[in-house]
Amino acid sequence: MAQRSMAVEFPLVLYDCKFENIKWIYDREVQEFNVTHLQQLWANHAVKTQMLYSMLQGLDSVALPCGTGPKMDGMIEWRNVKPSVTKQTSAFVEGVKMRTYKPLMDRPKCQGLESRIQHFRVNVFQVYIPIGFQLCRRCEFHNGYSCNHVIGSCWKFKIANLKRACVTDNFYYYDRVADRYNYRYSVLSCRTCEEGSFMLFHDLYRETFCCTEDNCNDPEKNMDISKIAMSYP
């Protein structure tokens, strides 16, 4: 049984739609445009059709040798060769024709989530190492009370019950008049955590907190209510 292939789309009749008790009224300019366009398409394909038909007729009179090799005996015109070649419908099927049919469920499939998780399971000396997930909050701009941009969640693998960290980055800008750093916003993520304080620029300061519980990276839990980090040293 041959492998089934997709058919081409151009023989489908999609324009002849009928609706009961509805009479369409066309705009004159739109009607003229549609008729002109279809006439041009028809003329184009009609010329190509006639040219191809003439080419096929010309090939019918081509002389071929009878037989093959040393057994050739006389000549014969292509129109008299039996069986004749009639393969017009082969143009209506796309793709490569397969020799044998293969059921859909027996064809190659991508790996599922379970298979990918199993790939990370390690079995050394018959010791089973379990794998879990660490869920964290995700937000690109948290004002200290709510997320203003891209609120959601992210996750990490926890292997052998080792705790993974969720990250809270608090950013502070230097106020020259008050001579101190004031809180501006926070970023919540699953990136690799390196806890501590970091001077990014002369007027930008970052404070990073790491926590190991699900959805524990909450700016309100590790920041003063006044949103003031520290005085300028």
What does this structure look like?
Strand 10 and strand 11 form a beta hairpin. The protein has 233 residues and is of the alpha+beta class. The protein starts with 27 loop residues before the first helix and ends with a strand. The chain has helices at 28-60, 113-119, and strands at residues 63-65, 75-77, 122-124, 127-129, 131-142, 147-149, 152-159, 166-175, 180-189, 196-201, 204-211, 228-231. Among the domains are: 28-54; 130-227, CD59 (Ribbon), CATH 2.10.60. The strands form 3 sheets. Strands 5, 6, 7, 8, 9, 10, 11 and 12 form an 8-stranded antiparallel sheet that branches. The relative contact order is 0.11. Residues 122-129 and 225-233 have low confidence and may be disordered. Helix content is 17%, strand content 31%. InterPro entries: PATE2-like_ECD_3FTx.
> Could you please say which CATH topology of the domain at 130-227 applies here?
CD59
Average pLDDT for all residues: 79
Number of helices: 2
What oligomerization state is this entry in?
single chain
| Largest sheet properties | 8 strands, antiparallel
Helix/strand/pairing class, anyone? alpha+beta
- What's the architecture of the domain at 130-227, going by CATH? Ribbon
Radius of gyration: 37 Å
What would CATH call the class of the domain at 130-227? Mainly Beta
Envelope shape: elongated
The counted number of beta strands is 12
How much β-strand is present in the residues? 25-35%
Q: Which spans of ≥5 residues are poorly predicted at pLDDT below 50?
A: 122-129, 225-233
